[in-house]
UniProtKB/TrEMBL annotation:
It holds the Pfam family MMR_HSR1. GO terms for cellular component: cytosol. Belongs to the TRAFAC class TrmE-Era-EngA-EngB-Septin-like GTPase superfamily. EngB GTPase family. It comes from Furfurilactobacillus rossiae DSM 15814. The keyword Repressor does not apply. InterPro entries: G_ENGB_dom (IPR030393), GTP-bd (IPR006073), GTP-bd_ribosome_bio_YsxC (IPR019987), P-loop_NTPase (IPR027417), Small_GTP-bd (IPR005225). This is Probable GTP-binding protein EngB. The keyword Nucleotide-binding applies. Residues 22-195 form the EngB-type G domain. Necessary for normal cell division and for the maintenance of normal septation. PROSITE patterns: G_ENGB. PANTHER family: ENGB-TYPE G DOMAIN-CONTAINING PROTEIN, MSS1/TRME-RELATED GTP-BINDING PROTEIN. GO terms for biological process: division septum assembly. It comes from the Bacteria.
Length: 195
């Protein structure tokens, strides 16, 4: 999709703040610092519209980005961020679970994992949880610019195995640096959102 207009409609912490209307939504989930906000910026051709940081825990609310008045991208706070208190973590967890399990116009979730590492226990739990709720999912292995081209296949097998994915489950390798995978991710979004 050619993106010209993007607007941060709302940073929500509770369901009553979710946007009104009927646009489809696609959410981005993954551990802190994995590159969710960077993926959004790549998809909308902006450098820093969605705030990114080398410090994990940057995104702390459900940020609804209205893209071309056609679809919302929902930037979700990262999990597995040790520096916030346990209470804060539980509150985050609830906010995310409430959104993902109750939002009827959620068309799919992009689960980001780091292409360089084995999926963490939190990644595995999130993957299982999304499957349990039957939420269409795309696994994106990000920061692929940080591994050699010759290791890409190996990374894919490692991640597929770690997350217990079937060969039919969607997987795309991505880099916000090189834009690798950008079109493939857009295609998946367009399909899920019926654009
Ligand atoms: P939280 O909001 O804390 O959950 O993090 P996030 O998942 O939104 O991560 P963010 O997009 O803020 O990126 C974290 C850091 O990783 C930043 O320093 C980014 O520049 C860097 N980063 C993100 N994607 C890539 C990528 O594809 N390649 C490289 N080399 N760096 C990346
Ligand atoms: Mg973020």
């Amino acid at each position: 999709m050619e993106v010209h207009d993007v607007e941060l409609t709302i940073s929500a912490v509770a369901p009553k703040q979710y946007p009104k209307g009927s646009l489809p939504e696609v959410a981005l989930a993954g551990r802190s610092n994995v590159g969710k906000s960077s993926l959004i910026n790549t998809l909308i051709n902006r450098k820093a519209y969605a705030r990114t940081s080398s410090q994990p825990g940057k995104t702390q609310t459900l940020n609804f980005y209205n893209v071309e008045s056609t679809v919302y991208f929902v930037d979700v706070p990262g999990y597995g961020f040790a520096k916030v208190s346990k209470t804060a973590r539980e509150k985050f967890g609830q906010m995310i679970e409430t959104y993902l399990s109750t939002r009827d116009r959620l068309r799919g979730v992009i689960l980001l994992v780091d292409a360089r590492h084995d999926p963490s226990d939190d990644d595995i739990s999130m993957h299982e949880w999304l499957n349990y709720y039957n939420i269409p999912m795309l696994v994106v292995a990000t920061k692929s610019d940080k591994i050699a081209r010759g290791k890409w296949n190996q990374a894919e097998s490692r991640i597929r195995k770690g997350l217990n994915m079937t060969p039919d489950d969607a997987y795309i390798q991505f880099s916000a640096e090189t834009k690798q995978g950008k079109d493939a991710v857009w295609n998946w979004i367009e399909q899920q959102a019926g654009l």
